[in-house]
Amino acid sequence: MPFCYDYARPALTVDCVVFGYDETELKALLIKRDLPPFKRMWALPGGFVRIDETVDDAAKRELFEETGLENVYLEQLYTFGDLHRDPRERVVTVAYFALVKMSGHRLRATTDAQDAQWFPVRQTPKLAFDHQEILDLAITRLKGKVTYQPIGFELLPTKFTLTELQKLYETILEATLDKRNFRKKILGMGLLEPLGEYTEGGAHRPAELYRFNKKKYEKLSKSGFFFEL
Amino acid sequence: MPFCYDYARPALTVDCVVFGYDETELKALLIKRDLPPFKRMWALPGGFVRIDETVDDAAKRELFEETGLENVYLEQLYTFGDLHRDPRERVVTVAYFALVKMSGHRLRATTDAQDAQWFPVRQTPKLAFDHQEILDLAITRLKGKVTYQPIGFELLPTKFTLTELQKLYETILEATLDKRNFRKKILGMGLLEPLGEYTEGGAHRPAELYRFNKKKYEKLSKSGFFFEL
DNA sequence: TTTACTTAGTGTAAAAATTACACAAACAAA
DNA sequence: TTTGTTTGTGTAATTTTTACACTAAGTAAA
Question: Has residue B165 got a pLDDT over 90?
Fold first, then answer.
């Protein structure tokens, strides 16, 4: 027990809510715990913050260690600081959330996790700790955010059709949107590039493919802009 | 050194950005530190989270101990987890922010603070730690929030005129607003009650006093509403 | 008591944004 | 060539937002 302090300290952890999307459903990434407490139960990927890494870095590291996901943009969600979150001892956790292209990453459970899998956000198994509460907050935040920031693109493949994008928005918002108004709005932002390429194989008219113009978005971001859906 | 752990743990603290408003200016509450590090320097009120209190409770307690402020609604702002925030050792802090009626509270510096004072938010002295960064983030958040939630009322006396309210909004947003449009919008929310009472003493037409209808607001809040200015 | 000064309080027209809504175009399969 | 399916497009009505100027009510000073 080499690390001693004058006063008792809570342990500090990070947890990550990672959202993915697979053409029909919004999913969250969970791991199956390999250690007590809640061994073999599903939970958000996360773990202890090391003394020599920032909290942000801890989130990145734990996400990688437990799921194999790398190069993910994590945004801080909220800090959960109640007393009995963990049955063993006092633990405060800083929660993060991220959006990823499911096709762009291969899952690989390693440290502290037996398994890592995507679950539909509204059909998750019973979760360890207060992780259901964290997940719920992340869903709420995602819904709020999607209406005023162009974030949906992170969840889609690089090339996508406007119909796919609309379905994603409808899934996140749990609402239906008018096709023509949606297109008007989303194209009006000027952040989508039509590629002149078209989908193939469907027994119907092919749809044009678009991609998100990240550079343009970053320029706009800097000049303090915001947009609404 | 009675508290020992297998791994080194960051210390966990809370810091509070408390905003007030005194008819012309937006102010933040600072304390003069009575202990090292940064002894005698101005800082945000805050301190260590105890092992037997929630993080939220720690914020309330520290705010009270260092400034005498009680019954303040604190909302979590952000968690600052970089490595060298504190010169002594690794400290992670959960920042909170609050809005208070300056007239409704008496300042009283006690534990760990030599003094507690209001400073105009854009004219603060050099602050300890990374507290300037925290304050800046709180200002940004306040600006963002005021446009879609009726929060300004917390900063004004119970009875106020529409002109006072408009000035407050203009101060927070660092912008000027059209008088007629502002009134239309703010009254259209249906959250202000005209009191039939009027200001006295000015060498000009008296202004009607209003108050914020908190109950109505809470009802609306529950049914998941939002409004924009 | 009249005049000057200051702030309060009010409505409307123009512009912009949002909403609602229906059909032809392009392909594959039968 | 007919059927079935999804893509892609414009306009009119409504709502929201913006811009803008004068009268009302009081005090102070002449």
Answer: yes
Q: Whole-prediction pTM value?
A: 0.94
- B48 forms bridges with which residues in the sheet? B13
State how far residue B93 is from chain A, nearest Cα, in angstroms.
10
pLDDT in tens, A92-145: 999 999 999 998 889 987 877 889 999 999 999 999 999 999 999 999 999 999
Q: Which amino acid is at A152?
A: G
Note the pLDDT of residue B227: 65
Other C-beta atoms closer than 10 Å to the C-beta of A147 total 13
Rounded to an integer, the average pLDDT of B72-86 is: 97
Q: Which residue is nearest to nucleotide D19 (CA to C1')?
A: B178
**Residue A195 — pLDDT band, cuts 50, 70, 90?**
very high
Strand D bases, protein C-beta under 7 A = 4-11, 17-21, 24-28
Q: If one looks up domain B11-146 in CATH, what number appears? A: 3.90.79.10
Determine whether the interchain pair B54/A82 forms a contact, defined as Cβ–Cβ distance below 8 Å. yes
Per cent of chain B over pLDDT 70 is 97
Burial A35-61 (b: 16+ CB within 10 A, else e): eeebeebbbbbbbbbbeebbbbbbbbb
Residues 110-129 of A with CB under 8 A from B: none
**What kind of fold does domain A152-222 have according to CATH?**
Arc Repressor Mutant, subunit A (1.10.10)
Q: Which position has the higher pLDDT, A111 or A193?
A: A193
A contacts of B61 (beta carbons < 8 Å): none
Nearest CA in chain B to A83: B54
Q: Find the range with the poorest average confidence among A108-122, B72-86, B92-106.
A: A108-122
Tell me if B12 and A92 make a contact (CB, 8 A cut-off).
yes
What are the CA-CA distances from residue A36 to residues A83, A181, B44 (Å)?
Answer: 19, 51, 39
Q: Which residues of B touch A11 (CB under 8 A)?
A: 5, 9
Residues 133-152 of A with CB under 7 A from strand D: none
Q: Give me B214's structure tokens.
A: 């908190």
Q: Where are the domains of chain B?
A: 11-146, 152-222
Q: What's the complex ipTM?
A: 0.93
Task: Calculate Rg over the CA atoms of chain A.
Answer: 20
Contact by Cβ (8 Å): B49, A81: yes
**Residue A166 contacts by C-beta under 8 Å, 6 or more apart in sequence?**
A177, A179, A182, A183
